[in-house]
Design a protein that fits this description.
It is built from 2 helices and 32 strands. By secondary structure, the chain is mainly beta. The strands form 8 sheets. Strands 16-18-21-22-20-19-17 form a 7-stranded mixed β-sheet, with no helix packed on it. Strands 7, 12, 13, 14 and 15 form a 5-stranded antiparallel β-sheet that branches. A 5-stranded antiparallel β-sheet has the order 23-32-25-26-31, with no helix packed on it. The longest helix has 23 residues, at 14-36.
């Protein structure tokens, strides 16, 4: 930072003081730029309704930081400097009130824009005393004793203004565009007939560059500038960070609180930008279950992948099948550690641990039983078949995993006419874990006036080491009711997290109208295996 030099006995010049002011301003501007760069930022300027409520809103005092010329006009004896720019601070020391007007046409609304700009303003005009060489004891009034008033203060001013949009049918009204040189801060929506403005009518303008009111140190400690709540949907996550994210760069990390769990490949969009894929730590598309509702999801930008890579989540691990397992109502402790990757098997194969894996959670499901068949009938009743038992389920955890063979149990074959469906195949994870398949359902023989469905016996329990929790196979719990003579499909319980597998019961049975031919059953759903890997 430059400093003016003066000497004892030298005649002081007005430029000595002017330069001192200028050098201090430039030094502070450079310090501010070291913290904030050259981006325009706002601080304070909170917009709130009046109290008691009315059609008035108040914008609190605050500041704007904006890159400006050092001096657009002469600063007393110092010439204008429009060659060099610095990050200037504009201040407004009192709140600004605005009175809004509601549309007069029924069904319409209007958006108002609060916008902010920086300006250098000269003020404090007064008639100054000047040295009178002819009679030093009597000062001149103004330069050359002209009596002319002169400004005595050059201020960096934060100017707050309001701009009205055009009233339109509610939901179609648009926010007016920001004026040149201004920065959008707030949007206020007023509906026809409104007599008051509430906090619900006021929202932050898109990408408004507000700095934390509590200060940068508190913001760093609280991560308030890198955290936002998700406003998107399952598999399409959206968040608005304040201030807005600058140009994406490798290593940038942000955290969002997911509103809904993911069920498959997902994307993330920040501050209205493009929706980029979300990848696992192993740089693979998500498969479902990696993000839980209300989980805190940390992501890091990777320009090579053009994707956000998951760094972690609220627990390191997720409740197994969180998105699809509600029908089992299972609760158990979560694994610890950082989630690296998820591997899913819907066919037999070999599991190879991802490098860095120290612990795994294995979910295994046996194949479900086949559906029994039913006989032909000439009665006036409706005949049906019922799903077979679901395959058994187990969750197990193992440390220091090695390459392991996986067998996926096939769904049980269907029963023929009046025949029972066969038992589903057993799924295994090496020699460590085994989940038997579900029993096939019995055949159904219709009788006049009665619709019944048979249920198979429960399957054997999963066996092996490391089991945290398990679920036995079950048959259909209730008799199926049907209307006489109406052909309808029975809806089976929901499938689970493994595509095409037997988390729920086997495929649907079928209602048949009267006087139809014999019906063969359906093949059960195959089993599956899902493995979560942790560092």
């Amino acid at each position: 930072m430059d400093r003016q030099i003066v000497y004892p006995g030298s005649i002081p010049l007005e430029t000595d003081l002017l330069n001192t002011n200028k050098y201090a301003m430039i030094g502070l501007a450079k310090l501010a730029a070291a913290m904030m760069g050259t981006t325009t930022y706002l601080r304070g300027l909170t917009c709130t309704p009046s109290s008691p409520a009315s059609m008035v809103v108040n914008v609190a005092r605050g500041e704007i930081y904006s890159v400006q010329n050092v001096d657009n006009s002469a600063y007393s004896s110092l010439a204008a400097d429009t060659t060099n720019t610095i990050l200037k601070q504009g201040i407004v020391m009192s709140s600004t009130a605005f009175t809004l007007t509601a549309p007069t046409t029924a069904g319409q609304s209007i958006n108002y824009l609060i916008q902010v700009t920086y300006s250098d303003t000269d003020s404090g005009a007064t008639v100054l005393p000047y040295y009178n060489a002819v009679n030093p004891s009597v000062a001149y009034s103004g330069p050359n004793n002209s009596g002319t008033a002169q400004n005595t203060v050059r201020s960096g001013v934060c100017t707050v203004a309001i701009k009205a949009g055009v009233a339109a049918t509610t939901g179609t009204q648009t926010t007016p565009s920001v004026d040149t040189g201004y920065t959008a801060a707030w949007v206020i929506t007023v509906a026809q007939g409104a007599t008051t403005v509430t906090a619900a009518n006021i929202s932050t303008a898109a990408n408004a560059p507000f700095l934390p009111v509590a200060g940068l140190v508190a913001a760093v400690q609280q991560n308030s500038m890198t955290y936002a709540a998700d406003t998107g949907a399952a598999n399409a996550y959206v968040a608005q960070f304040v201030p807005a994210i600058p140009t994406l760069a490798d290593g940038m990390r942000f955290t969002f609180k997911a509103k809904i769990a993911n069920t498959g490949a997902s994307t993330f969009a920040a501050n209205g930008g493009s929706a980029y894929p979300l990848y696992s730590h192993a740089h693979q598309a998500l498969q479902g279950g990696e993000i839980i509702a209300n989980g805190l999801i940390e992501v890091e930008w990777n320009s090579t992948l053009m994707a956000w890579v998951l760094c972690g989540n609220s627990g390191g691990a997720l409740p197994v099948g969180a998105a699809t397992q509600s029908n089992h109502a299972m609760q158990f402790g979560q694994a610890t550690g950082r989630l690296l990757n998820i591997q899913t098997f819907t066919a037999s194969g070999t599991y190879t641990p991802t490098p860095g894996t120290t612990m795994i959670e294995v979910e295994l499901v046996g194949g479900s039983g086949g559906t029994g068949g039913c006989a032909a009938t000439s009665s006036t009743t409706t005949a049906c078949t019922s799903p077979g038992c679901q395959g058994t389920y187990a969750l197990a955890r193992y440390s220091n995993p090695t390459t392991t063979a996986i067998t996926i149990g096939a769904g049980g074959s269907p029963g023929g006419t009046s025949g029972q469906g066969s038992t589903g195949g057993t799924s295994t994870f090496g020699s460590l874990l085994s989940c038997p398949g579900g029993q096939g359902s019995y055949a159904v023989t219709p009788t006049n006036g009665t619709i019944t469905s048979a249920t198979g016996a429960s399957s054997a329990a999963p066996t092996g080491s490391g089991i945290v929790n398990s679920l036995y196979g079950r048959g259909v719990p209730n008799a199926i009711q049907a209307s006489f003579g109406v052909a309808t499909n029975y809806t089976a319980p929901a499938q689970g997290p493994f595509p095409g597998t037997s988390w729920g019961a086997s495929v649907d049975g079928v209602y048949r109208g009267a006087s139809q031919s014999a019906y063969n059953g359906n093949t059960g759903l195959s089993g599956g295996c899902r493995i979560r890997e942790f560092a």
